[in-house]
Design a protein that fits this description.
The chain is of the alpha+beta class and 134 residues long. It is 29% helix and 41% strand. The chain has helices spanning 14-22, 27-30, 108-133; strands spanning 3-10, 34-41, 44-49, 57-64, 69-74, 79-88, 91-99. Helix 1 crosses helix 3. It comes from Pseudonocardia charpentierae.
């Protein structure tokens, strides 16, 4: 299965990053392309992307606070993105792993550059800004 791994470090404690990562209502603040998120039930979400109001994307969210991992699985395209947090001194190391089905391999570069890399950068900036205010 094609995919990629990206990493970055936020100058904020794990708890601050976790609050942003675990709260689907906050996804539009940092997840590139997401306009609206609707929580449908235990782990079930529907996401609407900017510019596609008539194309809801069902998602499944799994979170494991013990390991610091949040995984979002797109039920439409079978794409899975996992966000792993780890303490790095007073900072937080964020590792993002994306698994993409072979039939969507041509989208790996776009997903990496335009969605996940931008989202990782935005998550880091938001966590740092909110930590600076606390």
């Amino acid at each position: 299965m094609p995919g990629f791994i990206l990493t970055d470090t936020a100058a904020a404690p794990v708890e601050d990053v976790w609050k942003l990562l675990f709260d689907p209502s906050r996804f539009p603040e940092w997840w590139a392309g997401i306009e609206t998120v609707q929580v449908d039930g235990e782990g079930a979400l529907t996401v609407w992307q900017h510019g596609y109001p008539d194309f809801p994307l069902p998602q499944y969210l799994r979170a494991d606070p013990a390991t610091g991992r949040v995984t979002m699985s797109c039920q439409t395209f079978d794409v899975e993105v996992s966000w792993q947090l780890a303490e790095q001194g007073e900072d937080t190391r964020i590792t993002v792993t994306a698994d993409i089905p072979a039939d969507l391999a041509d989208l790996v570069g776009v997903l990496e550059r335009e969605v996940v890399a931008a989202s990782l950068t935005a998550l880091v900036r938001l966590a740092e800004a909110e930590h600076a205010l606390s």
